[in-house]
Amino acid sequence: MTATPRGRFITLEGGEGAGKSTQIACLRDWLEARGRSVLATREPGGSVGGEMVRRLLVEGPADRWDGTTEALLHFAARRDHLRATVWPALKRGTWVVSDRFADSTRAYQGYGHGLDLAMLDRLYEIAVGDFRPDLTLILDLPVEVGLARAGRRRGSETRYESLPRAFHDRVRAGFQEIARREPARCAVVDSDRETERVARDIARIVAERLGA
Ligand code: TMP
User: Fold this and answer.
1) pLDDT value of position 5
2) Is 108 in the pocket of ligand 1 (CB under 6 A)?
3) Domain at 9-210, CATH homologous superfamily
């Protein structure tokens, strides 16, 4: 099941409105300028099946799923995304940059909704195996700034934003805890700054850690 990656797998994580899509576009340009072949993708989604599951997850009322069902759906979408998109690309030597991956499940369903973290580790093992991102960039900013940014641009995908402020505080603290536990894989980037400054920091970290 586990791929032997020749490309590199970089994930961007963070709460609502952290600026991940803008930064992924910048990182992609930067990597391509260095001669890398790059695939930008996202979770939930990133494959035909993953995008179908995404709709179930991001639309509708906040209480549509209980926490465990939601975690199962995220891991189902993730496995499809890995098999259909990520692993084949890495095998071709492409660098894959994903807007969210399993740390989002830990932060949102684990720290946010209070699901047992050991249970999430078991689901990870089943759906993903021993595959891990080569680098995870956690874009950090105050919850109110992120929610205000996210609220300005949303269409129907409001299910997570409609959760209470305390939920988003736990998500932010969860991401910070993930970075503390796995400093070799993760780097926290202050994203409450101008786009260009954040992009420069990200490029520096990718160069230092992955030799891009
Ligand atoms: P997005 O807004 O970054 O596209 O992500 C969609 C929503 O899905 C976002 O509110 C975070 C949430 N999410 C989880 O709760 N768990 C997960 O595992 C993933 C990948 C996303």
Assistant:
1) 53
2) yes
3) P-loop containing nucleotide triphosphate hydrolases (3.40.50.300)
